[in-house]
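Moderator note: this is an archived Q&A kept for reference. The question asked for a predicted structure of one protein chain; the sequence and the answer are reproduced below.
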Amino acid sequence: MIKHNLKIFSQNVRKNKTLIDIILEIQKNNVDIILIQEPSWALLRRAPSHINPEGDSYYGTPNYPEWSLFIQNDGSTENYPRVATYINRHISKMRFSLRKDLINH
């Protein structure tokens, strides 16, 4: 699959989850890649744990069915990602991947 015109959209949402929802819903048929600056970073769920009766906390940015999410995260709540990249599933045949050897530099 060769796509000659990739459409990329970038927006600073200032950690507003509602704004991310709106952007991803409106742009799902118009844009191929969305770069979100300052994505929301909150408790998504609690995973069952044999150590903690309340469960382990899982923090992150929500996933959406029409988009593949790419973020760099070490799992801590203090060091959340500054940019989240959403790639539309209709171009998933291009096989995007997160190259840590390039990003970490």
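Archived answer notes: The CA atoms of residues 8 and 33 lie 5 Å apart.
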